[in-house]
């Protein structure tokens, strides 16, 4: 049977089932039913710390706990990601095969992460592949501490940049139309005395509004009504069709079916996509191309290692459900104790 602290149980729900006051159950759960108090006495919990240093004086101003540091949870395929828990930001290092957290620390700063990783010892040398986003902090951290690992920039984060470029084109079209409205209609769109031009603009704005979520999806998932709607949108807004087609082309390039292709072919196809972006003359895509070129090697590594941050994102979602089910993080240290027991 699982120990009580190993469960993501909602204490309020259990209290109602047992017919006792939630606060009373919480006190017994924290102080007697779980191993929280004993683990603190035995220094099993709360003993790993990182130093917070004053930037000017270099003095240690306080210490912060490393909530999870488990060398036994390290493996060949890892992922690193950030996560907001309560009001605070954390870094989470997750084993992609087991789904267990190896490192959980309340910081996104490279100097503090460098301290925290020391608790994992030489198990970092086990890592053959590590996925992360394009954060300079995480990329630098992975290069410094996982010398044998191939760094894979997470597919989801890259794809999101491209999708956001399509959204930017839609916003540009929306702003263009808004600027064409008469002042009277701008001030009160519900006014009945609209001229024909304003009526047409408002109709086009409604089309853009209805297309918002479809633009972030593959057209393979559209139903007949959605296909008809988007055909109308693309006819009205050719620049939006260009943007969507570029996004779709990139999505097809990034497809898992292409993992078996040779790296040279993958890179050649990506360069062809760069050319398509250039020909489109869409300013909204310039920044995303610059970003992809900067991280091209680590992005292309996806086709070699076939890994993403999917497991890490799943862990993040489960932690969020835990926090939500327990009405937030009121007793922070005990909440982190429970998270460490359940997720590591």
Q: How would you describe this structure to a colleague?
A:
- With 344 residues, the protein is of the alpha/beta class.
- The chain is 53% helix and 13% strand.
- The chain contains 15 helices and 7 strands.
- The protein has a 7-stranded mixed sheet, with helices on both faces.
- Helix 5 links the parallel strand 6 (129-132) and strand 7.
Strand order of the largest sheet: 1-2-5-4-3-6-7
List the domain count as a whole number.
3
* Gyration radius over CA: 26 Å
Determine the fraction of residues in helical runs and give it as a percent range: 40-55%
pLDDT averaged over residues:
89
Q: Summarize the main sheet.
A: 7 strands, mixed
Architecture blueprint of SSEs:
Layout: H1 11-18, H2 22-33, H3 36-41, E1 49-53, E2 60-69, E3 77-85, E4 88-95, E5 101-105, H4 110-116, E6 129-132, H5 136-145, E7 150-153, H6 155-180, H7 183-187, H8 196-211, H9 224-236, H10 238-253, H11 263-280, H12 286-294, H13 296-305, H14 310-325, H15 332-343
Parallel strand pairs: 3-6, 6-7
Antiparallel strand pairs: 1-2, 2-5, 3-4, 4-5
Helix pairs in contact: 1-2, 6-8, 6-10, 8-9, 9-10, 10-11
Task: Describe the structure in brief.
With 344 residues, the protein is an alpha/beta fold. Helix content is 53%, strand content 13%.
Provide tags for this entry.
344 residues, alpha/beta, Nucleotidyltransferase, domain 5, 7-stranded mixed sheet, 15 helices, 7 strands
């Amino acid at each position: 049977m699982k120990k009580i602290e190993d469960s993501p149980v909602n204490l309020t729900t259990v209290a109602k089932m047992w017919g006792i006051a939630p606060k009373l159950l919480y006190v017994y759960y924290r102080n007697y039913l779980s191993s929280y108090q004993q683990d603190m006495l035995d220094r099993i919990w709360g003993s790993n710390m990182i130093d917070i240093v004053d930037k000017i004086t270099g003095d240690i101003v306080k210490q912060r706990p490393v909530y999870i540091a488990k060398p036994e949870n390290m493996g060949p395929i890892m992922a690193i990601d950030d996560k907001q828990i309560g009001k605070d930001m954390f870094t989470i290092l997750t084993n992609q095969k087991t789904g267990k957290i190896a490192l959980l620390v309340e910081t996104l700063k490279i100097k503090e992460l460098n301290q925290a990783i020391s608790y994992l010892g030489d198990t970092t040398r086990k890592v053959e592949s590590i996925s992360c986003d394009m954060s300079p902090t995480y990329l630098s951290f992975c290069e410094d501490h996982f010398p044998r690992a191939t760094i894979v920039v997470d597919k989801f984060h890259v794809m999101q940049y491209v999708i956001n470029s399509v959204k930017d084109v839609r916003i540009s079209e929306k702003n263009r139309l808004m600027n064409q409205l008469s002042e009277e209609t701008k001030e009160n769109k519900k006014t009945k005395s609209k001229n024909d031009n304003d009526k047409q603009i408002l109709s086009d704005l409604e089309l853009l509004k209805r297309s918002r979520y479809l633009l972030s999806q593959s057209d393979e998932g559209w139903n007949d009504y959605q296909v008809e709607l988007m055909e109308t949108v693309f006819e009205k807004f050719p620049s939006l069709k260009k943007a969507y087609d570029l996004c779709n082309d990139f999505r097809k390039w990034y497809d898992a079916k292409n993992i078996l292709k040779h790296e040279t072919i993958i890179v050649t196809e990506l360069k062809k996509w760069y050319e398509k972006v250039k020909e489109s003359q869409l300013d909204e895509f310039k920044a995303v191309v610059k970003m992809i070129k900067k991280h091209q090697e680590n992005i292309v590594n996806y086709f070699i290692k076939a890994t993403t941050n999917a497991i890490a994102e799943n862990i993040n979602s489960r932690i969020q459900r835990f926090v939500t089910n327990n009405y937030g993080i009121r007793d922070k240290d005990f909440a982190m104790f429970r998270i460490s027991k359940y997720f590591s």
